[in-house]
Design goal:
The protein has 462 residues and is of the alpha/beta class. The chain contains 13 helices and 22 strands. It folds into three domains: 202 residues, FAD/NAD(P)-binding domain (3-Layer(bba) Sandwich), CATH 3.50.50; 110 residues, FAD/NAD(P)-binding domain; 123 residues, FAD/NAD-linked reductase, C-terminal dimerisation domain (Enolase-like, domain 1). The strands form five sheets. Strands 1, 2, 3, 4, 5, 6 and 16 form a seven-stranded mixed beta sheet that branches. A six-stranded antiparallel beta sheet has the order 17-18-21-20-19-22, with helices on both faces. Strands 10-9-8-14 form a four-stranded parallel beta sheet.
Length: 462
């Protein structure tokens, strides 16, 4: 029986749009449905609008530091979030439109509608029955609201982009990258910020030295950290909110942001009717080729909860389209993927943490911490840069690179090429640095800070 489409993609975010567009350029008959907004989380309520807010926040520091560099500035008139929101949302709308045009330009049939499974090859798309030989699920993730009394009074990350004014006091619950990025943004905008989290350090899963340095940097800018705490309930008390913590303490604010993670967006898709199974954590179960438990159905992007990064999603979508329709079977590698956290200062990282590397082999660890030239002049506290290389003693390969400091994301993109290519510490050493920059420190790290790994752990235990 003939199908309406060779490929149907559910979801118009980064993964789905790339997969659909490339499949279309390979000559496939492609349909793609999006029920909310084209471009997905990243373009609309994630990376893009958040980075614009990060850029806006940087002006606060630059304005304060300018007199030390000879600039005689009039007192700032203040910050207008509504004005920023206007230009930010205009840019989001522009990008939103580009995504739609990319699909139609590749010959795809676009549906502004919700798509759900009727059976393994049939979908209900806005109430219309559509069939496809192959189907890709790329519905992304969604922010999690905690199950505690009064949680509906708090915001999720999507809600931040609806704000038209800066709260005087903001309470952020969580210490992942989303929580800490918004904490830094609103602190720069002038809010008093409290961050509540259950661990002893922020950014679980990141390198220990980076976590410790970030904690110092957050405190230096006046962000109050409440580690080792779990929220118990949220109540409105007059004009403000009170977040009660387990153990009896509480934190008050004018707004509360819950940033406790995201979950795969699979609710109501009818996966059971297509034979698609999910993991215990709720992500769609896939093999190394992103094939689900139904052989002709694939899942890509955040809905698989493997490595929830936009560039990873687009790379996987492109590889899948090439494999299915481009006569070029291939996979996108999940190893050594560079990433950044746009806190203040930002973080860039690629490869293994020291702890992960030391679990598999003896390693040499190189760490430097210094005040960059800009802040030897500005005198701003808490702006030290930290750079770190983790090197396998046997192969001399650089297994991980980590940085906290200004321009970390920009610098780490280049370092990511080196780590992904398997370059050695000696390759770094023979590279001439660009002077004067912070980045040159990555190629001038000569003195080993410490050793770690199996045999050194054994010695410590003796």
């Amino acid at each position: 029986m003939p199908y309406d489409f060779d490929l149907f993609v559910i979801g118009g975010g980064s993964a789905g749009v790339r997969c659909a567009r490339i499949a279309g350029t390979h000559g496939a008959r492609v349909g793609v449905a999006e029920e909310r907004f084209w471009g997905g989380t990243c373009v609309n309520v994630g990376c893009v609008p958040k980075k614009i807010m990060v850029n806006a926040a940087e002006y606060a520091m630059w304005t304060e530091d300018a007199p030390r560099f000879g600039w005689d500035l009039a007192p700032p008139a203040g910050f207008d979030l509504a004005k920023l929101a206007e230009v930010r949302d205009a840019e989001v709308a522009r990008l939103n439109g580009i995504y739609g045009r990319l699909l139609t330009g590749a010959g795809c049939t676009v549906f502004d509608a919700r798509a759900t499974f009727l059976d393994a090859h049939a979908l209900s798309v806005g109430g219309k029955r559509v069939t496809a030989e192959r189907i890709v699920i790329a519905t992304g993730g969604r922010a999690v609201r905690p199950e505690l009394p009064g949680a509906e009074l708090g915001m999720l990350s999507d809600d931040v982009f609806l704000m038209q004014s800066v709260p005087k006091r903001l309470v952020v619950v969580g210490a992942g990258y989303i929580a800490l990025e918004f904490a830094c943004i609103f602190r720069a905008f002038g809010a008093e910020v409290d961050v509540v989290y259950r661990a002893d350090l922020p950014l679980r899963g990141f390198d220990q030295d980076i976590r410790e340095a970030l904690k110092e940097a957050l405190e230096a800018q006046g962000i109050r950290l409440h580690s080792g705490h779990n929220p118990a309930r949220l109540d409105r008390q007059g004009s403000h909110l009170r977040l009660s913590l387990l153990g009896g303490e509480g934190v008050e604010g004018d707004a509360v942001l819950f940033a406790l993670g995201r979950e795969p967006n699979t609710h109501g898709l009818g996966l059971e009717r297509a034979g698609v199974e999910c993991t215990a954590a709720g992500a769609i179960e896939v093999d190394e080729d992103h094939r689900t438990t139904a052989p002709h159905i694939f899942a890509i992007g955040d809905v698989t909860d493997r490595l929830n990064l936009t560039p990873m999603a687009t790379a996987v979508g492109h590889a899948l389209a090439d494999t299915l329709f481009g006569n070029n079977p291939r996979r996108a590698s999940y190893l050594n993927v560079p990433t950044a956290v746009f806190t203040s200062p930002p973080i860039g990282t690629v490869g293994m943490t020291e702890a992960d590397a030391a679990a598999i082999c003896p390693v040499d660890v190189y760490v430097t911490r210094f005040t960059p030239m800009r802040h030897t002049i500005s005198g701003r506290p808490g702006r030290k840069t930290l750079m770190k290389l983790v090197v396998c003693q046997r192969t001399r390969k650089v297994l991980g690179a980590h940085m906290l400091g200004e321009d970390a994301g920009e610098i780490m993109q280049g370092i990511g090429i080196a780590v992904a290519a398997g370059l050695t510490k000696e390759d770094f050493d023979r590279t001439i640095g660009i002077h004067p920059t912070a980045a040159e420190e990555f190629v001038t790290l000569r003195i080993r800070t410490r050793e770690a790994g199996p045999r050194f752990q054994a010695k410590a235990a003796e």
